[in-house]
């Protein structure tokens, strides 16, 4: 599908129970680029009484925030601003009064959505920004409610919302910040009761991946990483570790854990109680954090052109257009890389085989993005861009690997700057890098050189052997010169390359 060349700027606003969020973005070459984000903590749920009346103080905090957002949105047409209200606003019996006051300072319509609609938007936001494919279970613990949705790729199958959130549970079970094992168990048991009716249907549907969005899950991941769990994966064992450390304190406000922000301290333990209940009820093994949630879901619901099956390819295509990539050259490099990667013997049965192939494909398509800055040492610029730009569909490790390969595909290799990650061993990273260096080297003369019909690759430890058809190297002396330079670059870091 051809993309419109005229950028379209728009805003998505989520009026949540804990915080109000504003995202301003634009669509360029079929991809969404985030221009700015504003987050204001308003704690609407704190002002929602048992009679479901929203207090004047909570309303004022919300209206003041909307006035701030309105000043940022000056010049935006109404059709380009989408605003949704979630749990607290849909529960408040006097939400019409809030909407009436909002009109005085905020000129855009506010749509208060149902819990299931919120869950499907969260699903959409995570699905359009994270790399997982197939069936996914996505969970969002908000200030007043928790949303759950199972779906395939971009299509939700079962969406639910339950009245339990980190702010409402803090108010109900941890009054005045009082913390005890009894209070925690009470919150945990109530959370279990609220979702027990979903266990059978959800577990029968099953899933391949579990993702969690929201401030609670983001905070859990941040605390885990700060305390030595660098992969950021949430497990029940790790949740229990956090809970045990929190219960050493007598007040939510006294909790001191590495990575725990002061403004999240009083809602952290209530969120842990809900999250533990979700892990137990649905027998979740592992969960990964998704930074895409309801706001991103609103953005990606604006146009059908985003309903593609490969988010990362959409991202790569958009960047290629944005940076005026030479598509024919990218295709030449990609074909050579694919020809070589099939000859890596220890990857034939590797569990990440397809991911390695894909990384080489995207590196081929994007390795020249830095030329728009300066052709001289453009690989440095390309690596910097890919390491720092927003890449929807790529997780942190994939983005770092892509940037590393592109950064070092030319000139010297700095092994001290290349480190293994939790998913990729250093051996595999180096293998990808060496292979991609060869793929770009063999196409350095671009269309001026006749590509070899066949390049054979044999690997013996750190020594790679390249062989070409008869007379090919004789007829391409510039390539021989480039290969000799590559031999010297590799020898400088302890690797060998031989060719004939």
TrEMBL record:
What PANTHER family does this protein's entry cite? EXOPOLYPHOSPHATASE
A GO BP entry is:
polyphosphate catabolic process
Domain Ppx/GppA phosphatase N-terminal positions: 23-302
- Name the source organism: Phocoenobacter uteri
Q: What class of enzyme is it?
A: hydrolase
* Cellular component GO terms, alphabetical: plasma membrane
Name this polypeptide is given: Exopolyphosphatase
Q: Which cofactor does it need?
A: Mg(2+)
Q: Where is the Ppx/GppA phosphatase C-terminal domain?
A: 311-486
- Signal peptide annotation: none
User: What compartments host this protein?
Assistant: Cell membrane
Q: Which keywords fit this entry according to its UniProt record?
A: Cell membrane, Hydrolase, Membrane
EC number(s) on file: 3.6.1.11
Query: Is Membrane there in the keyword field?
Result: yes
| Quaternary structure and interacting proteins, as annotated | Homodimer.
A GO molecular function term, named singly, is: exopolyphosphatase activity
- Look up keyword Acyltransferase and say if it applies: no
Which family does the record claim for this protein? Belongs to the GppA/Ppx family.
Q: Give the record's membrane topology.
A: Peripheral membrane protein
Principal location class: membrane
User: Could you tell me what reaction this enzyme catalyses?
Assistant: [phosphate](n) + H2O = [phosphate](n-1) + phosphate + H(+)
